[in-house]
Amino acid sequence: MTSRTLAILAAATLGITGLASAQMMGQDHGMGTTPDKSVPTGASQTDPSQTNTNGTQTADTPASTDAKLTDKDFVQKAGSAGLYEVAAARLVQDKVSDPQIKQLAKTMESDHKQTNAELAKIAKQSNIEVPSSPQGADRQMLVQLRQSDDQQLGQQYLQQQIQAHQQAIDLFKQGQTLQDPALKGFAERTLPKLQEHLQHLQQMSSAAQPAAGALPGATDMPTTPDKPAPDKPAPDNTPNTPTPNP
Questions:
Q1: Are 50 and 58 in contact (CB under 8 A)?
Q2: Which residue of 1, 39, 178, 185 has the fewest C-beta atoms within 10 A of its own C-beta?
Q3: 133, 85 Cβ separation under 8 angstroms
């Protein structure tokens, strides 16, 4: 091998060694790498749970699940509840013997018949159909009253009335936000009467509860006074006198 050939080989070897060293130095300093373009620098990844179906990010605020009460829904619910009130009151008046429960049922029938008539008139003007009979839970409560034993009917009616009026008060409070001015005014006028009914019902229920600590069925029995112990004879404290000998 000639000296010229040896010189060429030596130069090539030096070039390859220098290139390899340069590449190693570039890797040590972060050179030669391609940045991940999928996530922009300085931006955080988006949580899939915070995006909608269009892929846009939404605010971290839970959506409201309370549907706004419509005029039609109010008429349907208030109408059903009112029909239950009248039917239940008539049933109780025919079967119970308790004069207080009878008077309560009579008052409920009179007040709710008037309320039902006013609601029907407003609904007709607004082209909203009112129910012709109690619906859903109202119908079920009426069935329970019809199947109840006459002995328990009065108490069951009282408890149903408390529950029904609590629900009606919630409904009529929502009714104050209705779109129809006539229905809204009806809800505002009727609400105080429902609250008055509930207060009276709760007072009757409290009065019917047995006194705290009393045994069920216990009655006040007359007590017999303790008889005094018989008098004992008084002890003889007379000193003994000796008998003289004869």
A1: yes
A2: 1
A3: no
Q: Which of 118, 107, 233 is nearest to 186 (CA)?
A: 118
Domain ranges of the chain: 71-208
Q: Decide which of 3.90.1200.10, 3.40.50.150, 1.10.580.10, 1.20.1260.10 is the CATH code for 71-208.
A: 1.20.1260.10
CA distance 127 to 121: 10
Low-confidence ranges of the chain (pLDDT < 70): 1-66, 210-246
Is pTM beyond 0.85? Reply is no
For residue 122, which phi and psi values (nearest 5 degrees)?
A: -65, -40
Per the structure block, which two tokens stand in for 180? Answer: 């129809």
Q: What is the pLDDT of residue 93?
A: 96
**DSSP class of 37:** T
pLDDT per residue over 30-42, tens digit each? 444 444 444 444 4
Q: How far is CA 97 from CA 63, 105, 106, 152, 237, in A?
A: 52, 12, 13, 11, 73
Cβ–Cβ < 8 Å for 89, 105: yes
CA distances to 10, 14, 17, 20, 127 from 7, rounded to whole Å, are 5, 11, 16, 21, 108
**Cβ atoms of residues 59 and 52 within 8 Å:** no
